[in-house]
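Data availability (excerpt). The following record was deposited with the supplementary files.
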Amino acid sequence: MTRNNEVKVGRIVIVEDSKVVRQRLEELLGTVAGAEVVGTAEGVQEALEVIWRTLPDAVILDLRLKDGSGMAVLELVKKTRPATTVVVLTNHGTDEHRVKALSLGADRFLDKTADFDQIPAAVTL
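Predicted structure:
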């Protein structure tokens, strides 16, 4: 939220190894006023490069990526750009994963199966 209760969505990067899920997220976010997907990535290194290049307001992040763990991306983003909203969206929604992600600074932790429809609200934190 910004001052005067205006919702600010802004620039979003999607970090997800599944092309189908990435496309679905882009379609969903395309219906959100003020949302602009400025980049996507499938792996850790690619994600970090896209995030540093585009400086998004929010990142939607899967935990299992093509070449490693989304936890590494989460940790680096929150250490270097703490104001960036990070929404973890995963099929691995165990309590252990949730606790670790939240302890590393995730703003939201969502399950792909049960919480997909909460993405628009999650990026307007």
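Summary of structural features: The CA atoms of residues 9 and 123 lie 6 Å apart.
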